[in-house]
Amino acid sequence: MLFKPDFAFYRITDIEISFLKKNGIKGLILDVDNTLTTHDNPIPAEGVREWIENMKQNGIKLIIVSNNHPPRVKPFADLLGVDFVCEGKKPLSKGFKQASEKMNLPFDEIGAVGDQIYTDILGANFSGIKSLYVSPIEHEKTAFFKFKRKMEIPFIPKKLYRKTERKL
Q1: pLDDT digits (tens, 9 = 90+) for 14-67
Q2: How would DSSP label each residue in 32-93?
Q3: Interior CA angle at 102 toward 98 and 104, to 5°?
Q4: Which residues span the domain enclosing 133?
C-alpha cells in the first residue's frame, strides 16, 4: 500500500547503522521540519547533530529533500554539513530522483525518512524507495496541518521502534 511505511521509528535518532546495513540502505533522504527539528526552527533537535556525524562516519550518504525554499533549507543543511534538494515537490518523484543522482545511489539502496504520510512516505513508496516513518517532533498548530494529521491516523503504524539507551 502506497500510504504504509516500510519501517517506523519514534525519532530519527532511533535509526541505527545496524538496521540500515541489514536492510541494504547506503543513503538516506531526510526531511527537515518535524523530522530533524521543529517547524521553522534553525537549530537541529537534540541528538540530531551527533546522529548525522555517526551516519557520515559509517559511510551512510545523507541528503535533505524538502518542499521548502532555499532560504529555509540551505542554512540548515549547511549547519549539518549535508547536501540538499529544495522545492522537491514531494510526493512527486522530482526531489527523490535528484537526491538519488546526487548520492550516486540506486533507489533500492536508499531510505527516505520523514514524518508526513502524504508527502514523505507516499513519495518514497511511489518512487520505489524504502520509507522510514518517524513520529513528528511536534504537531503544527494551523488548521490545515491539524486536519492533515488527522487524515494520516489510519496509516500511522501502531508500533514505533525506539532505541533503548544502553547503560554501561
Answers
A1: 999 999 999 999 999 999 999 999 988 999 999 999 999 999 999 999 999 999
A2: -BTTTBSTT-SSPPTTHHHHHHHHHHTT-EEEEE-SS-HHHHHHHHHHHT-EEESS--TTSS
A3: 115
A4: 7-155
User: Across the strands, what pairs with 145?
Assistant: none
Q: Look at residue 162 and tell me if it is in a domain.
A: no
Q: What is the largest CA-CA distance in the chain?
A: 45
The verdict on residue 20 lying in a domain is yes
Q: Which residue from 108, 109, 111, 33 is spatially nearest to 66, judged by alpha carbons?
A: 33
**What's the whole-model pTM score?**
0.90
Distance of CA 126 to the CA centre of its chain: 15
Does 136 sit behind a cis peptide bond, omega within 30 degrees of 0 on the bond before it?
Answer: no
> What is the domain-level CATH number for residue 96?
3.40.50.1000
